[in-house]
Amino acid sequence: MDEKLQQLEQELSKIAVPKEQLEQAHSHAVQKYRIQRRRRKKVVQVVMIAALFSLIFTVSVRLSPAFAQTIAKIPGFAPLVEMIAFDKGMEDIIQNDYAEEIGITQNVNNLTITILSAVADESGLLLTYRLEAPFDVSTIRFEEIQLQQLGETLPASIAYSDSPSNENVIEGNFDFIFLEDATLNGDEFELFIQLNDADQTEFTIPFKLSKPLAKSKHYTLNEQVEVDGQLIIVNQVTISPLRAEIEFTIPETNSMRILDFNTVKLIDEKGEEWGRGRSGISALGSLRDNHYTMFIESNYFREPKSLTLIIDKIEALEKGKDFIEVDFEKRKVLSVPKELDVQLEIWTDYTISATYNVAQENHVKDLFTYLIDANGEEVSRSTSTNKSSEESYQVSGSYTFEKGFVNPVKLYIANYPQFLDGHIEVKIPLN
Hints:
Layout: H1 2-13, H2 19-27, H3 29-39, H4 51-63, H5 65-72, H6 78-86, H7 88-95, E1 100-108, E2 111-121, E3 124-132, E4 142-149, E5 152-153, E6 156-160, E7 163-166, E8 169-178, E9 188-195, E10 202-208, E11 217-227, E12 230-239, E13 244-249, E14 256-268, E15 273-274, E16 283-286, E17 291-296, E18 307-318, E19 323-327, E20 332-335, E21 343-346, E22 351-357, E23 368-372, E24 378-388, E25 394-401, E26 409-413, E27 424-427
Antiparallel strand pairs: 1-2, 2-3, 3-8, 4-5, 4-9, 6-8, 7-8, 9-10, 11-12, 12-13, 13-17, 14-15, 14-18, 16-17, 18-27, 19-20, 19-26, 21-22, 22-25, 23-24, 23-26, 24-25
Helix pairs in contact: 4-5, 5-6, 6-7
């Protein structure tokens, strides 16, 4: 660690940091932080550094975006800046020395990938990486990513980021969330990666974790809450170092279909909040399937005297008025509920475009994720592209569905800014 600190100090000494600009950055830090948080689309990443320096570094990054931008230019430190700035749980991981350095490198086809660090707990595994080559790698993407043990792929959902540092280097992370049937066998893993380059380059990188997994904190609630006549059951809260998980059940007897919980947070006795921190995987399951798990920032390393779960701005549509009927083959929109302010245009036999409103300014959310065809078969969306209008609550998107469905179809709404009148407030039984 001393060697790393010396290296960092040498790098920092080469950087000219204007005092006047830093003072100005301080005065505008909160405003800039909020704007950047709304616009952040990358999954946060983690790198191991000494505990003493991490505290100083954390304060500097949070208070001075200018300082953060400067540090991010140092190779290997961009992931750390994103992590600390946009996820309080990740900040706690660094301060409590829970991340561990890996530093394993593999070279194939003149491409070099390095696993920089790891954070593991019972909920999943977060790996940071660097991909580099003596040629342009900015267009290279990951075709396949698997976490393996004993030659078998572990059941997990995965999100990854790929932020080019320059044309020769990509830095990012792989965020694995273990599924219920995932069983870990020891502390040795292999990371399998296939790239989309001309050679379809493959890496199989063995690595070993040295730190024991922190035990998750489980709080059983089974709290039934009625909001605007709709029943929502909060089953349990599980808090691990990487994330806090909140499990819900939505009864089919509800007259409205719950679409989304826009505000979900944990609040302690001091009023400090932990909410939706980073992008990537924000949930497992689906509210329409009646069982749903949402992920928010973790307060694992804190010891609050009280903890309250707050859920607000609950999106919902009346059942029967929660879908749009179209005939792709005839390029015709058949019906749109009058409650929905949506502009539609059918482009192809499988693609439709939509312009619609969202609940938060400059916040991109999908309007559709699946359809039900004339035979009652569910068809998933294969691709989607969305963009928000600058400083606006409006989003434009296009959605392409898997081929083979029978027209006409029902396109079910995934997100829409119509809210239940009320919120959920549940005390977490800490003792």
